[in-house]
Here is the input.
Amino acid sequence: MSSTEGFSHESRDPKWVQFLLIGLTLGFVFLLLILPLGVIFWEAFRKGIKTYALALSDRNAQSAIALTLLATAISVPVNMFFGLAAAWATTKYSFRGKSLLISIIDLPFAISPVIAGLMLILLYGIHGWFGSTLQSFGLQVIFAVPGVVLATMFVTVPFVARELIPVMQEQGSEQEWAAVSLGASGWQTFVKVTLPNIRWALLYGVLLCSARAMGEFGAVSVVSSNIRGLTNTLPLQIDALYNDYNAPAAFALSSILASLSILTLIAKSWLEARIDYRSKDKEELL
Amino acid sequence: MSVEVRQVNKTFGSYKALQDVSLKVNSGELVALLGPSGSGKTTLLRMIAGMEVPDRSQNSEEGKILFFNQDVAKWSVSQRQVGFVFQHYALFKHMSVFENIAFGLRVRPRGQRPSNAQIHDRVKQLLQLIQLEGFGDRFPMQLSGGQRQRVALARALAIEPKVLLLDEPFGALDAKVRQKLREWLRRLHEQMHTTTILVTHDQEEALEVADRVVVMNQAKIEQIGTPEEVFHRPASEFVIDFLGSVNVFSGRSSETLKGESKVYVRPHELQISRNSIDHTSISGQVQKIHRAGASAKVFVQTDNDQKVRVDVPMNQLQSLELGIGQQVFITPMQAHVFSPDYTI
Here is the structure.
């Protein structure tokens, strides 16, 4: 037993309890997570690499991949910027309604994505509040790419802010004050002092945000109206293919989406290990 | 450079942090702002640094902060060129000690920025000053609390500040280190003569380090004076109570004084004896004796049921042969009297 673990039940619990609990966890994870994920890759390649390649080279499939990447590429930087601004505002300034603002940032977590999609239609649809105004400028939001991007942005709003706020709250603003008193400008303070202190939390938030942006189905489904090759994202395209009984193509695209998620997961665990290492480092030396 | 604060007020919501506070710190002076938490001392310090803004007032002469007779109200924190040291150091964790100290020089606009070689020399000098040569490559996490605070001080000194502001600089350190750093800070001040304002709640620290002590309580200044003055001639009940332990006798029990007045006597200002000395002597019984320390603390329960502490030098304690339950007389050799209308 390693000394860093502190209290461990290992010595007290009977062996069979240990085996039972570990077995249960492993069985559960295998049945519910690993097996389905494995099936996706199995099914994707079952009909051979040729079918797989064919499914991916389909014009609509490629358009779906492109749209997913586009929506992610827009919503992640926007939310990163917003998250930074929101975290800065709520931790460095004091103003009325601050705690309310922090709760509102969490709204997309609480609201069902379908409702989020409906809200967008009510606002930007042809018969919505801003619909006619937008139309007079020749802009179509709903049932078009902008709607897809907007829906993705809506559901990913909390991720970066949520990661940053606790970190920045804990750090307070003394280091920033110190930098300013030493003559640093606002920008120098941000780049040289604030950013290095929050970089891991920021990256973590961005990763979570990306994972969600790529996988979003509900909200996007409502506003996109599933126009293949035009407004279908990867999850929507997969759903459509599956409904067409085109299982091999559906699984082929699923494998792409799953790979993206697994990549994010790997990056996330690597980051967690780093953050963990750093905080342990701190405890030991303080 | 002299620093002056003129009739400053500060409120946070409905909470009054500073009420009509005026203070002048002379050039090259080391002044301590002393008071309990919530007395407004840190707010005053942050205001001088520019981190807080005084409440606006109709009277244009009120609410002013002057550096060398120049109004700095509109100057930003960085324009004021103050060296600020925080209680919890506020070192940049991701930078080495060297880079922490060099920070103020590196962020200067290109025209005024010293060359790399100059920065290197300056940081070396400062590391020598804080007795941490060879620690330049370490990170703040790898230093002890006392070392971190010295780095924070060196970082503040690197920009050659006009005023050095220290906010409870030794508050997070243990007693031994605190004592050492206190002496070191005083020596440093004698070398450099930078105008320094230090905030502390530790009366011993204030009395030992400062040229003058500003005692604050409940958003107001109670007394400004040299350590001798505030200790031996306290201007108010609060000051005598805050600067060390004191026995309080109400007017009635001392009989010599009329009305509601209270008599304050410090434990070392009381004499303890087997026999009554004069009419001010009070009889009582020894309850407890603490022998650890330079002088013994003898706790006496007087006949009118008051608990009194008397500090007795060790040799005197032995010659008196005091024991628990012993009948004794205590006689004030010196007393501070405060009554609602007048003070002595």
